[in-house]
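Input record (one chain):
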Amino acid sequence: MVRRAIAGGAVLIVLILLVLGFRGCLDARKENAMEDYGNSSAELLRESKLDGDALFDLLQSEGGTDQVVEIQNELNGLQVASSDRVDRAEDLDVPDELSEAQRYLLDVLELRRDGLSRTARAMQVALGDQDRREGTQDVTAAMQTFLASDTIDRLRFRPALEGALEDEDLAVPELPTGFFVPDVEWLDAGFVADQVDALRSGTGGGDEAATPGLHGNGLAAVSLGGTTLTPGTTGTTVQLTSDLAFDIQVQNQGENTETDVNVVVTVGEGDDAIELEEPIDTIAVGEIQTVTIPLSEQPPTGQNVPITVEVEPVAGEEMTDNNIQEFSVIFTR
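The corresponding structure, as predicted from the sequence alone:
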């Protein structure tokens, strides 16, 4: 009887262990699937943002009658790529916990596909004849579609993705910064008409004229995780933490308010370098603003890692010696 009881208890323990092991495998499989979806969706949005950058660079290029075919070919290529991206999104393996995020992701990518398709058709008309204004009007309408995609991305997709991943204590992937539509002026029909006219006549692509007076920004101070970095110093030690970030002080040293000032950080060098950036919307004359840029990827530890911080020059800036500083950091655990 005692042997039977012992044998029965052993069987029960084995069954419990099997159930726990099976449940653990299911949990791990679910977490892996959620992380895979997060990374895949983030990559699709990064690709889409690059297409948006290419589109607006094209719309602001020099243009000219000899470039019409090339411009149209580039627009068609962006349209095809965006359509393919929607197909890839539809083929993603979507865990139940992320079904809501998937619905919004498809909305974002489909709107951008539709906007690029409408832009390609409209530009064919707009570049063909200066009197055919309906093409320009359709380009402006396409900008509204892109704006809708930005709104759904920020207010629906990202909260749904981040909430589902955080509920499972999973890392949220790095999502692209900035918006598909780079500036609200693209929603103004008059501005769009001017851009299209310049593109058609070959007078686009010029640098934005700077207002009179001295222009320029400079780096005032740079710190990492609370440790002040000194240019040229070798081997400043900084401990790696999950919330490690650069705090970069930028000063407007000119005589004009500056807008869209981009701050870029490069950690490491070569193909393995980590590229980070953050814009300053507006900085007044003499003002010092602190830009916080999280270190989103893990650099190598136990060795000198070169770091470059740059405030990109603005229109009209002639002296740029104080725009860049170089440091060396040893990251520790």
